[in-house]
């Protein structure tokens, strides 16, 4: 179970800055937070935050990490607060670059595209955030485009399924 929101926020802020050695559990929390913050940044790129984008972030976090619903909710809240006060993406992408495989990094970029497409509108600011993060994660242009196309296809399929049901 995650610690209280404030305790975890304080601990992860210290660990993301690289000034503390981490236990395996703390390292896992750091990766979860870094991933969640990058997803939240896509949502925050548009002035109006939409429920569809929040839902896309929650779904992406569920797919990526084995967490209970209350842990996902706390992670989202923590990521939103962290993103609000973050001044760059590098402290988050550095954690992912150090510990994620190339495929895992591509999956993060794809999840970012899913968040961007969740509200049926791709904003230029969202596209800029994803492009910037993909570059920082060393995702090639071809991988970036493939992730975008796969996310488009996934979101279109989801919309068609929802329309039928």
Automatic annotation (TrEMBL):
Which residues, by range, are in coiled-coil regions?
Answer: none
- Quick one: signal sequence residues? none
InterPro entries listed in its UniProt record:
DjlA_N (IPR007791), TerB-like (IPR029024)
Extract the SUPFAM superfamilies matched here: TerB-like
What is the top-level taxon of the source organism?
Bacteria
Name the Pfam families for this protein. TerB
Residue ranges of the Co-chaperone DjlA N-terminal domain?
32-148
Protein name per its UniProtKB record: Tellurite resistance protein B-like protein
């Amino acid at each position: 179970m995650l610690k209280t929101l404030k305790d975890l926020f304080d601990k992860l802020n210290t660990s993301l800055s690289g000034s503390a050695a981490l236990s395996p559990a703390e390292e896992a929390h750091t990766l979860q937070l870094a991933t969640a913050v990058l997803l939240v940044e896509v949502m925050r790129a548009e002035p109006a935050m939409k429920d569809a984008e929040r839902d896309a972030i929650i779904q992406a976090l569920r797919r990526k990490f084995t967490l209970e619903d209350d842990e996902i909710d706390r992670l989202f809240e923590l990521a939103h607060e962290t993103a609000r006060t973050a001044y760059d993406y590098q402290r988050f992408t550095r954690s992912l670059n150090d510990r994620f495989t190339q495929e895992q990094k591509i999956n993060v970029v794809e999840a970012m595209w899913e968040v961007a497409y969740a509200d049926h509108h791709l904003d230029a600011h969202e596209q800029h955030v994803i492009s910037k993060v993909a570059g920082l994660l060393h995702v090639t242009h071809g991988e970036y485009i493939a992730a975008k196309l796969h996310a488009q296809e996934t979101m279109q399929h989801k919309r068609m399924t929802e329309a039928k049901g």
